[in-house]
């Protein structure tokens, strides 16, 4: 029996909608994240997962029960949770003597682990410890990365790409100024990653452009890089492949610069500028002496030819 014959058709409308969401699409859905608590997670790791879930809402699933698994040794449980919740991003929190206050952040491709990076928590300040107003649920953040390591080291470069994938939220076509409400700032310095969250305050400045102030709202994390499980270059390129229907068609003789300015190239035949008709002005008229010298030069050329 072929694989097509073994496909079971949905019996209810709910099952049909569920399968339609999982079908391949040209423009993929918003990536959801699952936040999983390990079997030996302490209070600090649990609170970190809760705070990250508060930033990810409504594009996240928080599992409150403890799950005894080790992502770097056994990935089958992560694949099971990914298929069950239809999430392509995950964060796993655990704690033990060898790796205290441990976080594993990663992403899936075709329900298999693509990238996975382990981070250690050295310092943590929770959302509830900072007594400031918070942003509403579902707000799209602005992401800022500081530090040369994010562009030089391969592990940090993948970590930057992973963090962008994890926190960027839905893709939007238009942005309004009042919608820019909070910033996630990541700094790589001296082998550590500093994660800070700020609320954006628009103050009166006396002109059209408002004055901007940043107010820390939490959470705040000091992280250190531990183990990594990175996809091969071929698999990574395959996961980033764009469908042909979404690729922009190349236009002849049209180019774009780094700032998005469009330039066009026009092909013309070689012109004789001496025959070009220009605007007649008194200041450009030739003097009688210049005309006499030109006539003499023409006569001398004719005599030489003869």
UniProtKB/TrEMBL annotation:
PROSITE patterns reported in the protein's UniProt record: BRIX
Superkingdom of the source species: Eukaryota
Brix domain segment(s): 31-234
Bias (Basic and acidic residues) ranges: 287-298
Disordered, as annotated region: 270-306
Biased composition range(s): Basic residues: 277-286
One GO BP annotation of this record: maturation of LSU-rRNA from tricistronic rRNA transcript (SSU-rRNA, 5.8S rRNA, LSU-rRNA)
Coiled-coil annotated residue ranges, if any: none
Entries under InterPro entries matching the protein: Brix, Rpf2
Keywords: Nucleus
Transmembrane stretches, start-end: none
Name assigned to this protein: Ribosome production factor 2 homolog
Source species of the chain: Panthera pardus
Name of the gene this protein is made from: RPF2
